[in-house]
Amino acid sequence: MILFENRLIERDEAVVDIEDRGYQFGDGVYEVIRVYNGHFFLLKAHMNRLERSTAEVKIKMPMPTAELERKLRELVKVNGLEDGFVYLQLTRGVAVRTHHFPEQSEAVLTAYTREMARPVKQMNDGVRTVLTEDMRWLRCDIKSLNLLGNVLAKQEAKEQGATEAIFHRGETVTEGSSSNVSIIKDDVLQTHPANNLILNGITKNKVFELARENGISVKEASFTVEELLEADEVFITSTTAEITPVVQIDDTTVGEGKPGPVTIKLQQAFTAAIEKESYAQTN
Prior knowledge:
With 283 residues, this protein is α+β, with helices and mostly antiparallel strands. Helix content is 32%, strand content 29%. Strands 7, 8, 9, 10, 11, 12, 13, 14 and 15 form a 9-stranded mixed sheet that branches. The chain has a 6-stranded antiparallel sheet with strand order 2-1-6-5-3-4.
């Protein structure tokens, strides 16, 4: 079953109009929300970001957030999802094709579930990445459907046998094609500040919260490609990647070429946070 507009229907019943602005312009926003043990993880944070994205692109939410959360929980339950994610998308709706906003249109809501196990092997072994120039637009803080730049970078990484592409604007590292990038140098955790050049990651924010709780110094400040390559540890974060160590960037080995002690400590804290939130929703 999927959630389409305000109804749970079979997937093959859903129809997208050819003049849906999401289809023609990428005029919409989305969220990917993790589910562990049948329960959402960090749902409120994702809903807050969805509300921010819709406000930034001036799309009206089709229902109150509380009602949307209830429908998403119903979607998870009816599909029997234990471990995976919910993909949620809002477009501006259907209207005669013209670049400016239509005078009248109703947002189209779509959501579906997908099973996905935790990426244990990648988290244990680490991944290889490549550097690529960040040529995207300057509103990366909006989680919009306009992902062609990210798609091209991810394809570039795949063709080079890597898992992720790390963007840089000139000498400044921004983020990954589908993740945030953090470095550790002299036991200080650092990531790009949350401005218009990156998506303010829900997982990244949780990791920084856990770092502070565990006595790890944190710093939100931009860093250079050189600083990235000379870091003691590097990891990427996202809803589906969780905390994945980076062990190689292009031809450069990061640290000792294996997950470092600070990264491992944060992974353990993150797993504990998942278990704590799942327990709280169960009891």
